[in-house]
């Protein structure tokens, strides 16, 4: 996409200088933009003015790569400088999100763009959402597939009845119910509406001890089953969704980078039966979702657009995750992996 700025350039503070802050775009070349710094650099309506990270070597590397003038070891040092920012990106480890968000509430920052999940603790996330609402501060949360134009188009077609009602959903994911499972839950709630947790069948620890990967059953508002099927990210990483609808089938694969739409047709071999055509694979807007996210944030700060992914929608996904994790306490011990081939991104 070619974003355009319609008002003054907004100054940005990036808190945390890791992979999602800019590292994924530093480590590769390509048209896809995967990080906060990469998206801001592509947008004429933003300028990254400062960053925060306790690792001095990484902080300096980040400043040099993204041409950032000011760097601080912690948020307190940044706050002491007295500089106001239009937007702050929270890219710290999840365990530090609550403290970082609280610190930003005490600073002259107009809006915040926070990595997911919001805090990892549903009560803390609820407090943060309410605090930002009370302060009148926009809080965007990086469930970036909500800014993917293909996902938005699919959502509209489902809402307009083009696919009929949901028959069932199967989602394959790995690397933690909060870390990656919340991405899947959030995307499904974006596409087909609120989900209710029904049961947990199995858990495994392929990410961190406090964030198990769960096999679970959820249900749509109309009672259609939604199955979350966990994999082991130490073997390979996966994020795929199969939507079985009344009038066809939509499959999202390759982490959300491609999808296939299949329509109902007459069976060419058996008269009187209907089946699905083969459809075709199409590229989604995955690689430009981050640029669209900051473009939307720019418009929102200027009062010209709503946020498709905000504190309330992120909290809704985290609440489902919290319920599933409570249910997981009653299931069997975690399933060990047969082998490990390293941590996946």
Radius of gyration: 21 Å
Overall form: globular
Are there runs of 5+ residues with pLDDT below 50, and where?
Answer: 339-345
End-to-end C-alpha gap: 25 Å
What is the average per-residue confidence, as pLDDT, rounded to a whole number? Answer: 94
User: What is the CATH class designation of the largest domain?
Assistant: Alpha Beta
Structural class: alpha/beta
CATH architecture descriptor name of the largest domain:
3-Layer(aba) Sandwich
Give the H and E element order: EHHEHEHEHEHEHEHEEEEEEEEHH
Count of alpha and pi helical runs: 10
Q: Level of helix content?
A: 25-40%
What is the CATH superfamily of the largest domain?
NAD(P)-binding Rossmann-like Domain
Percentage beta strand: 25-35%
Largest sheet: 9 strands, mixed
DSSP, total strands? 15
Number of domains: 2
As for the CATH topology of the largest domain, it is Rossmann fold
Detailed description of the structure:
There is one protein chain. It is built from ten helices and 15 strands. The chain is of the alpha/beta class. It folds into two domains: 10-145 and 290-309, NAD(P)-binding Rossmann-like Domain (Rossmann fold, 3-Layer(aba) Sandwich); 146-284 and 319-328, Dihydrodipicolinate Reductase, domain 2, CATH 3.30.360. Strands 7, 8, 9, 10, 11, 12, 13, 14 and 15 form a nine-stranded mixed beta sheet that branches. The chain has a six-stranded parallel beta sheet with strand order 3-2-1-4-5-6, sandwiched between helices. Helix 5 (97-105) packs parallel to helix 6 (122-135) and helix 7 (149-159) packs across helix 8 (177-192). It is globular, with a radius of gyration of 21 Å. Mean pLDDT is 94; it is low at 339-345.
